[in-house]
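Curious: can you check?
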Amino acid sequence: MISLLAAAILGYLLGSIPFGLLLTRLAGRGDVRRIGSGNIGATNVLRTGSKGLAALTLLLDLAKGAAAVAIASGWRPGAALVAAGCVILGHMFPVWLGFRGGKGVATALGVLIPLAWPVAVTSALLWVATALVSHYSSLAALVAAIVGAGLAFFLADRMTALVIAAIALLIIFRHHSNIRRLLAGTESRISFRKS
């Protein structure tokens, strides 16, 4: 039980590091929560006008998900899965920001790499393909999360697949406002053009 508790604390604390907020402040871009959607993730960081900061935010959010699982995997059976769930919760609901964090997409991809890399690769490719075709980051995230969760039941063991499915449900929940805007045709698009 101690190792599982440690995995939960490790995961939550790593997940709750708000890289998007920290990077934009350090770069003199202000508080990213006052820009665009108010989210601390890479897509909203992109709205500051810096593709470099957005890319770094994505990589660091991904890295904290992978790190939490990789560290906990050496402890005891089940610890990696506990860390996986808690790193997502930490990212989405960080105590330091009044439990208002990101939507967990990049961090979830980071979690998938050590847990079930074939699911990670497939989900990443689906995100890119959907984003390129639709120009909606939110739609790409939803497609990747749903299909990835389904694939996990064929490409991973049952407990891992259940944790991945739970993470997908959290991602869908955090995108509830995006889903409404997608249905209304008012969702913001992302651009891949060079500025």
Remarks:
- The radius of gyration is 16 Å.
- The CA atoms of residues 177 and 183 lie 10 Å apart.
